[in-house]
Amino acid sequence: MAPMMDWTDRHCRVFHRVLAPHARLYTEMVHANAVVLGDRARLIGFDPVERPLALQLGGSDPVLLGEATRIAVDAGYDEVNLNVGCPSDRVQSGRFGACLMREPALVAECVGAMRAAIAGRGVPVTVKCRLGVDEQEDYVALLHFIDTVASAGCDTFVVHARKAWLQGLSPKENREIPPLRYEDVYRLKRERPQLTVVINGGIASVEAAEAHLAHVDGVMLGRAAYHDPYLLHLLDRALFAPAVEPLPREALLRALRPYVEARLAQGLALKHIARHLLGLFHAQPGGRAFRQVLSEGAHRDGADWSLLERAISTTQAQGRRAA
């Protein structure tokens, strides 16, 4: 499941773990400087149920990235991923994200420092990148980037199968306008079979994910699975337990109840968890009613698990009428 700023927080990840027991989950991107100097419990804290879990770091200072990687592994993360794909202006101004695809030697230096900081710990350092940026159109530039970074010991690349425009397009537009070039990612795996290659970008169905897996080692889903989270459950079943029937949506939601009630008992407002649940009944009879009940009630003082039960009941009642 892809790292997504302001979306894949710890509450989202616990929900996704319920849906997909076998998925590898990623945190939102956190800058290395924040990990080293900031409130670590708030920034990189997680529930053990989320594992296997990767921390995605941003940055371009090898020393800071090395220290942040050590902190992450000490905290129990199963992977540390360097972001070389985010195209936002804020990221570029800090010299990290997609603009680093123009500096493969620096990325290799960063990866080397990160790996050295956790030598012998058995935790991989991976890279998430684009096909290129701006004028980088050809496959040769991508291969040069990959080979340079791989020479520092990175053997796993998550490739968003679009290039990024650093000027003129918003982050949202960069997820939609540059054309998807899946064949370039397939070619990378064919020509560098020793690398683990994971494909990302525009994957929105179980069938599409399975088709990609004929060419690469893994698939990373992002916004499609966030807005329709049941897709994660269907994909987990299809890949890891095809003989087992998927669980009903309401059963999956109720499996989250112990976590929700524990967080509420600690003083967390329900709205911080409920916002990640809105798409669970996406495109289902009663799905709109489910979203409405949660949207109208979760922000109110004292909102608790009973609101979620009411949302389920309302959804089921509307579904019966539709049938």
From TrEMBL:
Q: Which domain of life is it from?
A: Bacteria
Gene3D superfamilies given in the database record: 1.20.120.1460, Aldolase class I
In this protein, which residues make up the domain named DUS-like FMN-binding? 1-307
The UniProt keyword set, sorted, is: Flavoprotein, FMN, NADP, Nucleotide-binding, Oxidoreductase, RNA-binding, tRNA processing, tRNA-binding
Q: Which InterPro entries match?
A: Aldolase_TIM, DUS-like_FMN-bd, DUS_fam, DusA, tRNA_hU_synthase_CS
Biological function: Catalyzes the synthesis of 5,6-dihydrouridine (D), a modified base found in the D-loop of most tRNAs, via the reduction of the C5-C6 double bond in target uridines. Specifically modifies U20 and U20a in tRNAs.
Question: By what name is this protein known?
Answer: tRNA-dihydrouridine(20/20a) synthase
